[in-house]
Structure formats: C-alpha cells, structure tokens
Amino acid sequence: MSSQAIVASKTPHAVDVEAGKDYYWCSCGRSKAQPFCDGSHQGTTFTPQKYTAAESKTVYFCGCKQSASSPLCDGAHKQL
Ligand code: FES
Ligand code: FES
Q1: DSSP bridge partners of 59
Q2: Is the CB of 27 under 6 A from ligand 2?
Q3: Farthest CA pair distance, the chain
Q4: How many CB atoms lie within 10 A of CB 38?
Q5: 51 — phi, psi (to 5°)?
Q6: Of the residues 64, 70, 80, which should be mutated to test ligand 2's pocket, given the most ligand atoms within 8 Å of the CB?
C-alpha cells in the first residue's frame, strides 16, 4: 500500500470551472487525467478530493500534490 503522493507536475493546472459543478482532484498523483482522479489511486491510501465550484472562473489546481491548500495550488511547487 503506497502512502506517498507522486509529483505529477511541478506547475498548477488552470481549469475553467463552472458554478455548482463538482470536480474530483487527484491527490495521489497517479492519474493520467491530471489534475483529476481517474481511479488510479486504487491500492494506495489516497482518495480524490471533491471540489465544488462556487462560481464560474479559472482556478489553479495543484499538480505537485504538495499544496497545503489542496486541491488548489498554494505555491508549494516552487520548493520542489
Ligand atoms: Fe489520484 Fe484518484 S487517481 S486520487
Ligand atoms: Fe502544487 Fe502549486 S502545483 S502547490
């Protein structure tokens, strides 16, 4: 069972989210459909993190999986 998040990308993913829509952010870094979960976390301790868009706008989902403000980027990728 793996409990280490993989650094999928060292930069955030800009996504135009729609108000009221749910998004499932990949917390494990294993998804091939970054920044979202594709089920590849199976067999790890990770589960996707649900994000509900409060408004329609561009948000920056964390790609490195080290953000303290997940699922959004907090700049932690700059330390990698
Ligand atoms: Fe990473 Fe589901 S594939 S959390
Ligand atoms: Fe992870 Fe910025 S991409 S903190």
Answers
A1: 15
A2: no
A3: 37
A4: 13
A5: -130, 120
A6: 64
Which residues, including other chains, have CB under 8 Å from residue 77's CB and lie 6 or more apart?
Answer: 10, 11, 12, 62, 63, 64, 66, 67
**DSSP conformational letter for 13:** E
Domain boundaries, the chain: 1-6+14-65
Identity of residue 12? P
Query: Per the structure block, which two tokens stand in for 38?
Result: 């594709």
All residues at 6 or more sequence positions from 50 whose CB lies less than 8 Å from its CB, including other chains = 22, 23, 24, 25
Task: State whether residue 79 is helix, strand or coil.
Answer: helix
pLDDT values of the chain reduced to their tens digit, one per residue, 80 residues: 578 899 999 999 999 999 999 999 999 999 999 999 999 999 999 999 999 999 999 999 999 999 999 999 999 999 99
Q: Taking the complete model, does pTM exceed 0.85, yes or no?
A: yes
